[in-house]
Amino acid sequence: MRSNARSSRTRQQLAGYSLIEMVTVIALFGVVMLACGLMMHALLKVDRLSRQEESLSLSLTELTHRFRRDVHRAATSSLSEEPQTLTLELGSGHSIRYQQANHQVQVQQITQGEVTSHEIFRLPGCGLRWEALPNQAGWLMHVRRPALVLTTKVPVEQAGIDFVIEARAQRFGSTVTADTSAGEVR
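User: That's the sequence. What structure does it adopt?
Assistant: Structure tokens below.
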């Protein structure tokens, strides 16, 4: 009988968990939850950055199409500084003004001296400038956009991608030249 009493006590002791086992399980659970939390944070950051990149790409695409179309329609054009403003005269009192300031481009349609409509293209982190082609054959729009950097652990120089959008005036050809070439990643 004594052996039965000993075996029942041993079974009772083995049936439960010790405090050390419980603490170990809780610590492991905490480590797994911390890893999951860090992964979720990283995924949300990547999602936010990719949405910003998509929004910037859409703005640049719309601005590029609008710029080419407007330059193609222009009879004359002029560029002024501070703030950098490109004015495209369409004739009959109609003109379009591209004004660049604070990482955005404002496009205004002007009829008989009054602004009839305007659009704003937000280009966060982008640098933009216009340059005339020889003989007023059209315009170049130089855009330096930031590169998408997904890590902050490695120091990155001012990374960026240079784009040049060329638009020719209608009087120099019946088609719009649409050469968009990506420059070097710096």
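The two ends are 85 Å apart (CA to CA).
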